[in-house]
Amino acid sequence: MRSRMTEHRPLVSIVCPAYHEQEVLPHFHVELSRVLAPLEAQYQFEILYIDDGSRDQTLQAMQSVAFDDPRVRVLSLARNFGKEAALQAGLEHADGDLIITMDTDLQHPPELIPQLLEKAKEPVDLVITVRQEYQKPGWFNQLGTQAFYRVLHALSEIEIRQETSDYLLMKRKVADVLMRMQEKHRFMKGLIHWMGFKYLEVPFHPKERTLGLTKFSFLRLMALGKDCLFSFSKKPLTLATTFGSITLCVGLAWALAALVQLIFQVGETKWTANYMIVSSHVLAGAILLAIGILGEYLGRIWEQVRSRPNYLLKFDSHDADSRKAARQPPHIRVFGAPAEAPTDQEIA
After folding, report:
1. Which helix (DSSP H) or strand (DSSP E) does residue 249 occupy?
2. Residues 115-151: pLDDT tens digits?
3. Which residue of 150, 175, 246, 337 is 20 to 30 Å from 321, comparing CA positions?
4. What 3-state DSSP class applies to 297?
5. How far is CA 86 from the centre of its chain?
6. HSE of 128 in the Cβ direction (CA atoms, 13 Å)?
7. Position 32 confidence tier, pLDDT thresholds 50, 70, 90
8. What pLDDT, on a 0 to 100 scale, did the predictor assign at position 168?
9. Of the candidates 178, 188, 295, which has an alpha carbon nearest to the alpha carbon of residue 237?
10. Cβ-Cβ contacts under 8 Å for 293 (sequence gap 6 or more)
11. Could you tell me whether strands 164-171 and 313-316 are parallel, antiparallel, or unpaired per DSSP bridges?
C-alpha cells in the first residue's frame, strides 16, 4: 500500500496531464485550489502535473505553480509520449488513497470534485463522469468519433459509451491493478471497463475551451481507435479469414466462368479479360488487407517483447536534482543539463 494518511484524512491525488497548455494552466490551478480549499478539513491533497514533452512554456508554468504550492509535484516526460503515457506516469507516482484524473483545459470542471469524493464513500471502486450535451469539436472529428465507438462496440470485448470521460476518480486498488498492466498500447478507459470494477456515473456539462487550442486531432483519434481495437479484440483476424475465404470463393467462381467461356467460346474475350483483371485486383487487395492486419498484431507483439518503457522522465520536482534546477533562473531550468564548471572558490 503506497497511500498514506495523516490525522485520519485520506490522501487524494489529482493527476493532470498537459501538453502545450501554458496559457490555461495557471488559471486551472487557481480554480482547482479554490475548489479544494473547503475540503482541506476532510482530505489531504497532492496535485501531480505531468508535462507530456511540451515545446512551449508549459513546464515553466508548472514549476511556477509548484514553487508557490507545496501540494504540487511536477513530472516532465523526455518527449511527447502521448496522453495515455502521461496518465500512466501520473498514476505510478501518485500516493493517494483516492486518485482523480482530469484535463487542465478547464473543460473538466474542478467544481465536480466534491461530488466525486462524496460518491466515493459508497461501496464502489470508481466514479466515472459522463458528458451531457456533448461538445462537438467539428463535424469531421465528430464523424470520426462516432465511427470509432461504433467499430469498437462491434468488434471489441468491451463497451464504452461515447460520452464517457477521462475525468474520473479511482480508489487505490484500481490504480494498483492498472499499474501492473504494462501494455505498450494503452487505452485507460478501455482497461478500466475491461477490469470490471464496480462504478458509479456522474453527469456533467463540459465547459467551452476559452484558452489554448485542442490537441486531440482526427489523426490522434484514429490512432487511439486502432490501439483500442487491436488491444481488446481478435475479431480483425477472424474477419480477415472470413473475407479471404469469401474472396477466394468469388475468385474461383470468376475463374470457372472464364474457363467455361474459353472452352465454349461464349461471350466476348474482352469481357473475360476485364473480368480477370478485376478479380485479380480484388484478390490482391484482400491479401494485402490480411497481411496488414497480421502486421498490426505482429508489430504489437514485437513492441511488447522489446519491453521498452512507455515513457521516460526528464524532470521530477521531488528529486533533489530537479529541486535544485527549479530554484535556478528560468532560462536555465533544464533538468539533466550539463553542470557548469565549478569556480576556484567552490573547489577550495
Report:
1. helix 235-264
2. 999 999 999 999 999 888 655 555 655 666 666 667 6
3. 175
4. helix
5. 8
6. 21
7. very high
8. 95
9. 295
10. 236, 237, 239, 240
11. unpaired
Is the distance from CB of 188 to CB of 84 less than 8 angstroms? yes
pLDDT tens digits along 312-340: 999 999 875 555 454 444 333 333 333 34
**Which of left, alpha, beta for 134 (phi over 0: left; psi -120 to 50: alpha)?**
beta
- With the C-alpha atoms ordered 35, 99, 107, 30, is the resulting torsion angle positive or negative? positive
Terminal CA-to-CA distance of the chain, rounded, Å? 46
AA identity, residue 2 = R
Residue with cell 493517494: 96
Q: Closest Cα partner for 331 from 57, 79, 54?
A: 57
Mapped onto helix, strand or coil, the DSSP state of residue 258 is helix
Residue 54, amino acid: S
Which tens digits make up the pLDDT trace of 147-197?
666 766 666 666 777 778 889 999 999 999 988 887 777 888 888 888 889
At residue 37's C-alpha, the angle toward residues 32 and 39, to 5°, is: 105
**Residue holding cell 567552490?**
346
Cβ contacts of 97 within 8 Å, gap of 6 or more = 3, 5, 10, 11, 12, 171, 172
Query: What is the chain's Cα-based Rg?
Result: 26
* Residue 89 to residue 346: CA distance in whole angstroms: 37
Average pLDDT score, the chain = 78
Q: Which three cell numbers stand for residue 171?
A: 480508489
Dump the DSSP string for 102-133: --SSSSS-GGGHHHHHHHTTSS-SEEEEEESS
pTM of the predicted model, to two decimals? 0.71
The single residue listed with the C-alpha cell 475525468 is 167
User: What cell does 98 get?
Assistant: 483516492
